[in-house]
Amino acid sequence: MTSSRPRCSVFIATSLDGCIARADGRIDWLSIAQAGDEDYGFQAFFGAVDTLVMGRKTYETVLGFDPWPFAGKRCVILTHRALTPRHGETAFAGPPADLVAHLTRAGARHVYVDGGEVITHFLSAGLIDDLTLSVMPILLGGGRPLFGGSGPETRLTLAACRSWPNGVVQLQYQLTPPA
User: pLDDT means per 10 residues in the chain (179 residues)?
Assistant: First the structure.
């Protein structure tokens, strides 16, 4: 990570077969991981970020949440279609490097990157610094993949691994800079 740009982090759940949503975008299967007040470290992570970047599909899913989960955070939607903001979010249609340069100038310090396609674009641009992946104990048999096979080869260094009695396994990686 270059000190002049914000840290870009991924924190996402996936099925064991690598899907982040059903083919129709539903994420109802995530409820299998609900265990009391356990949030798998998400609130601590979320409290450390000041900006969210997500794709249009993720955004449309999140719009269905009540209340809006990103209140108080800068929220940027990567999209080429017109966007009618409902909670102060902004649209951006350029490449990830241009967005990160813009966010750097705007004072962003820690960016949460969300959505399979967006994560892949940020990985391709070499902009992801760390990745937290919570693997849910379910095989969906198909759906929207976390990594669609179009990203670059990326080396990772395991920073932490944790498991819970309900079968959730969380892997935390730092991206290894190319040699």
Answer: 81 96 92 88 96 92 87 94 90 96 97 94 94 97 85 89 96 84
Q: What are the angstrom distances between the C-alpha of 18 and each of 1, 15, 140, 149?
A: 26, 5, 9, 11
Residue 2: per-residue pLDDT: 45
Q: List, in order of start, the domains of the chain with CATH numbers.
A: 7-22+40-175 (3.40.430.10)
Residues 128, 131: Cα–Cα separation, whole Å: 7
- Between CA 91 and CA 74 the distance in angstroms is 11
Handedness of CA 65, 76, 143, 126 (dihedral sign): negative
Greatest extent of the chain over all pairs of C-alpha atoms, in Å: 45
Going from the C-alpha of 178 to that of each of 32, 62, 64, 134, 149, the distances in angstroms are 37, 34, 39, 25, 19
The radius of gyration of the chain's CA atoms, rounded to the nearest angstrom, is 16
